[in-house]
Amino acid sequence: MRRLEGKVAIITGAGNGQGAFEAKLFAKEGASVVVTDIDFESASQIVRDIENNHGKAIAVHHDISSELDWIKVVEKTIETFGKIDILVNNAGIHMESAMSEITLAEWSKMIEINLTGTFIGMQTIIPSMKKNGGGSIVNIASIAALRGGSFAHYSAAKGGVRSLSKTAAIEYARDNIRVNSVYPGLIMTALVTEALENEVTRKNLMEQLPLQRFGKVEDVGYGVLYLASDESSFVTGAELVIDGGTMAGARLTE
Ligand SMILES: NC(=O)c1ccc[n+]([C@@H]2O[C@H](COP(=O)([O-])OP(=O)(O)OC[C@H]3O[C@@H](n4cnc5c(N)ncnc54)[C@H](O)[C@@H]3O)[C@@H](O)[C@H]2O)c1
Questions:
Q1: pLDDT digits 0-9 by tens, 79-95
Q2: Separation of 213 CA from ligand 1 center, angstroms?
């Protein structure tokens, strides 16, 4: 028995990076996957990869900050696969800027995509999950939600995802809908390419990593798979930190 046999999963931002790995992993584990992304070309490529490996998937063009797009995603999913069991709110953006230099337009864009997108997603999909007798929602936050040292708008948005996830977990527990959140540390994807190009930043980041390596999409993907699957049926409102030990602290002695 595969770990997601018979499940229908929507993964946002699944055209690239962590979401793309999760889409392929979920399909391998037996789920029918709705691969959504604002980058439709990449989403379509992931669907072709899944189909070439005998999996089931469709691609949907989706801007997570648009309520109308979310309604279309739900309609398309129900029309194609008949139900929704899993939602992974993975899509996100990252911008580097000192707090004093963040414009209001940049602040609003960050909040709209990284926080409001997750809110609309849950609000739009929960009625279908209720009808289906339950579901599992996994919201991708960041260790930037748990401590300072990142960029103000990104941290604030991800901190919002953290409290939103717990609120939803409590509100929908009696509907058998579980809501958990994941806190990746530095994972090597396009999102952080620019930061890693800077030698000093690279060195500083490595110094904060007890396991002495940057993360891979697989490191997060298997955690998300656990929370999405029925193996975690007693887990809701939880926080899964996947960060090579960064949040545990730094060594004080050699
Ligand atoms: N990479 C890291 O170090 C890291 C660390 C902590 C948290 N995260 C979080 O993990 C998640 C996945 O990031 P990733 O590292 O795979 O980055 P990525 O840039 O490789 O992938 C992000 C995907 O989201 C899509 N996207 C962007 N804006 C969108 C929108 N408005 N609507 C729909 N799709 C949109 C992009 O097209 C892309 O396919 C994000 O929420 C990110 O904040 C990443």
A1: 999 999 999 999 999 99
A2: 20
- Which residue carries 């069991």 as its tokens? 85
Global confidence as pTM: 0.98
- For residues 40-58, give the mean pLDDT: 98
Atom of ligand 1 nearest to the CA of 154: 43
CATH number at residue 17: 3.40.50.720
Residue 243 CA to residue 246 CA, distance in Å, equals 6
E strands within 80-224? Answer: 86-89, 135-140, 177-184
Q: What is the DSSP letter of 213?
A: S
Length of the chain: 254
Q: How far is the CA of 12 from the centre of ligand 1 (A)?
A: 9
Full domain range(s) for residue 53: 8-189+216-243
Establish if 250 belongs to a structural domain: no
Report pLDDT digits (tens) over 94-137: 999 999 999 999 999 999 999 999 999 999 999 999 999 999 99
Torsion of CA 21, 27, 28, 29, to 10 degrees: 110
Per the structure, how many domains does the chain have? 1
Catalytic residue positions, numbered: 154
